[in-house]
């Protein structure tokens, strides 16, 4: 497939108003920073990276003037090394493990060095591709898990086909990441480089909708499930339905992709939740000039699942955090009419009490209290099981499910972690699938007559990509 980046969602979107918060290193800064690395034997930073990038080796290549070599080292372990360099919470991953931290000193800027290497050294085209094998693998969803899995399979000579519900590949890497970390065009560019390895994309194709699971089994020897999570969860309190109350992930997607999205007339916003999505949404609202942004969380700040390194800056940017607070009701001028106020009560042990706290005027409320799972989709695949939380059950060594021809990874398996975890799962699954295909252990597909499988095998169309 050619050119996805060139046909992205187009100009005039809210995300364009954001500048990046972590600027790139200059060439001189990169070489100077690389020279600080101690090239530790048994480097703890590698253990801190879920994809186990050989960090000291790529840093040494930067220090010795070999950016292509540095990029190749990164990509060998992580095909989404370019976006991971910008979106990974390095504070708790690689940089958090750097030996400098235990000495009370500033860790090596691994994330920024990785970005410099990826921007100076090149992309996945640097990697060697094995001769074609003729084996075919179908992947459900075009997010980081599937892109990593498909890219790895293509490098091994197989023919992967990604079935993606929306019009553009990238999943939440495209539609969810805060725009001051990664923009839509950057995510598309990386996806395009992976597709260029020999991955086919069928955009606008919903598995279980315009393509059936039986068709997938008939077309491909193995399948990989990377559909992520479902839609934003709701609170179920009075007055929730109607304008002014929406899911945070859905709002972020519109802010990033839809030129018609606007914050005009929004002066006071409340974000409900205490995870990273809540904090991202609050910072994004402030960044767009919303005067008053309050995060209402049902436990204490210390108990927030959001990273400390995100909560601190959010508060410094003017986001107010109300602890032990729950929403009791949304008040509207009339039923289904515009949102007027939000009635907040005290929460105890994370549960609402009947003790009134405050009633705040609000123009917009974003619900960031989790996402549903896609258990209904998973049920369509025979012998693929979910646990009680709706996460797909896999063998942790190979990411195979209860069905020997079906593998799975990413948010659908871990319940919602980071891009780098999804990449890890996809790549590990790809290696397991490759082994089985070479051993001839997977059933060859039964040919089906050519039939509609949704959109053509090519170009994405403009906005409104529908990530649930
Ligand atoms: C608001 C937000 C901000 C985030 N910020 C960060 C961050 O800063 N750093 C970080 O590392 N991680 C971040 N994450 C997490 C990260 O984006 C996810 O962990 C990662 O994208 C998961 O990848 P995935 O491939 O498993 O799923 P997804 O990215 O969700 O991709 C799944 C894809 O499958 C498609 N799909 C679903 N069902 C079907 C179907 N039936 N047929 C066809 N296609 C289907 C979807 O359209 C989607 O494109 C954030 C998440 C959110 C919600
Ligand atoms: S732990 Fe720090 S100093 Fe040691 S190799 Fe990794 S980045 Fe370099």
Give a verbal description of the structure.
The protein has 468 residues and is of the alpha/beta class. Helices cover 33% and strands 15% of the residues. It folds into 3 domains: 36-125, Alpha-helical ferredoxin (Fumarate Reductase Iron-sulfur Protein, Chain B, domain 2, Orthogonal Bundle), CATH 1.10.1060.10; 130-230 and 373-439, FAD/NAD(P)-binding domain (3-Layer(bba) Sandwich); 245-367, FAD/NAD(P)-binding domain (3-Layer(bba) Sandwich), CATH 3.50.50. The strands form 3 sheets. It has a 5-stranded parallel beta sheet, with helices on both faces. α14 links the parallel β6 and β7. The radius of gyration is 23 Å and the shape is globular. Flavin-adenine dinucleotide binds at residues 87-88, 140-146, 163-166, 171-173, 176-178, 181, 206-208, 226-228, 249, 252, 277, 280, 374, 377, 410-412, 417-420, 422, 467.
Compile the SSE list and pairings.
Layout: H1 27-35, H2 44-48, H3 55-63, H4 67-77, H5 81-87, H6 94-97, H7 99-102, H8 110-121, E1 136-140, H9 144-155, E2 159-163, H10 172-175, H11 184-195, E3 200-202, H12 213-219, E4 222-225, E5 245-247, H13 248-257, E6 268-272, H14 276-287, E7 292-296, H15 308-316, E8 320-322, E9 325-332, E10 339-348, E11 351-361, E12 364-367, H16 375-378, E13 406-408, H17 411-414, H18 419-439
Parallel strand pairs: 1-2, 1-4, 2-3, 4-13, 5-12, 6-7, 6-12, 7-8
Antiparallel strand pairs: 9-10, 10-11
Helix pairs in contact: 1-3, 3-4, 3-8, 4-8, 5-8, 9-18, 13-14
Bound molecules: flavin-adenine dinucleotide (FAD) and iron/sulfur cluster.
